[in-house]
Model the fold of this input.
Amino acid sequence: MKAYSFDKVELTSGYLSDKQELNRVRTIYAVYDRFYETGRIGAFDFDYVPGEGKNPPHVFWDSDVAKWMEGAAYIIKKHPTPELEAKIDALVEKIKAHQDENGYFNIHFTVVAPESRFTDRDKHELYCAGHLMEAAVAYDEATGKRDLLDCMEKYADHIARVFMEEGNAAFQTPGHEEIELALVRMYLHTGKRKYLDMAKFFIDTRGSSETSEPNVSYNQSHLPVREQTEAVGHSVRAMYLYTGMAYLAAQTGDEGLIKACKALWDDVTLKKMYVTGGIGSTYVGEAFTNPYDLPNEGAYTETCAAIGLVFFAHAMLALENDAKYADIIERVIYNGLLSGLSLDGTSFFYENPLEINLVEHFANERGRKRLPPTQRVECFSCSCCPPNINRFLPSIGKYLYAMDGDTLFINQFASSRLEDGEVVCKVTTDYPVSGNIRIEASGVGKIAVRIPEWCEKYEIDREYTIVNGYAVINNSGGAIKVTFDMTPRAVFANPRVIRDCSRLCVMRGPIVYCAEGVDNGENLHAYSVPCDFGYKEEFSAEFGLPTIEVNATRLIPFDSGLYSSRRPEKVAATLKMIPYNCFANRGKTDMIVWLHAE
Done:
């Protein structure tokens, strides 16, 4: 199927629309301000002089700002904003002024280490180039201003000379993947085949020459990509590589790449993904570990990795009309991705744990145990996640609709309007607050509505046929009404996930829920929840989603002493649960997703 670009889709109301608007009016400016304060914006002046007190521009600062530029461009495309456009134009002028005659552009390797260009594979030069290319495509699409695109075409030509023609770089493929998928975007935007050939070069070459390097699995260089079947190493790098592979396969029909992508997809989503859609369980290398190794309290689950998984899933949908890819997009967006953004839109999580026990952070503070932070912050030393959110939210419309032949696929549910020539579709819903969805479409023969994998009961007021997770309906005109049962339910992990054995988590629709100490008191581990729990729910304006109060039991602490031959007394209790993506917005407090099953 071919997805409709975000500019063809208008989110009109609802939860995702609210998040998109929050990014437009607040988050995009908050990130720019932090980047200005930390020197990232000023670095584009190329005025760093060693010994004068300024922090040297880091090797990845170009990419931080490039992602912000891309996000701002998406906003401008739908909502012309002179202030944002002026900020981008100022940056573009600096890029034009400081780009080398040969096309090279990188701040660090111009003002800090000019003698070290293309000598260290892991120093992010090609990664930064890729993000600048994506920003250039986005800005040209948004405004028609080609200056940044001209600069990046010149840079791409330089990279082709160095890596493909002359072969005089100290390495052949980037340590941090990203340029691969960016080059496919350059090809699709410009129509110039040379950029697709470059993407193919970097993908085909990976794993063929770097296998003697230490820890080659860290950056997915342990095998040629068509021989890779297990997700290994740094999770963000892996997602960007797999997305690039799927992008390339969609353009070339390469069956070897498609087979590898499917194997890697299954390994990630069936063995190494959290219930929230988070991936990359360890801080050591920000990486995947063994199958089913999914610790909760120490979960790394970088926000960028969640976004990368959405990119990969979206690319797989272009290869295969299967709802399982859209199911994962939904899981990630509503849980492990939005958890990276505070409710006020100004602070962020790099890591997204599934459990917080403040008593354990005593050891963490003294270096005896490594745990994720308990509160979001406005900027990180490695601040890749905030601008990734900046660029994801304004382009979220591209995940809603796709077309194959005369069939319109509805992959995600939000009140929205699609308009592309004769094809018009209007969806009215307050999903995921409720499961009621109304669809009106014209210009299409059939409508394929995704039936979420979590939904066991649903109603559709038309005849339909289930194909690969979609209810396919002949479009005879008039409104189609779909209702998904949103009853809160218990969800269990495969017993191979040892941390979650004899536990359950609570989900309502696509939303994972958690309990916090601020609502329920200390020691959340003392609570147990029956599998068929009773519940009450109430809409929360603060969270934009319902909260749930579930029936539970709670162990009573002993009056004295640590141990007893008598079992602790158990009493009836209720446990208030909030959407997982809203945790840690009300001060430091305990949090838990996986509860003891009664």
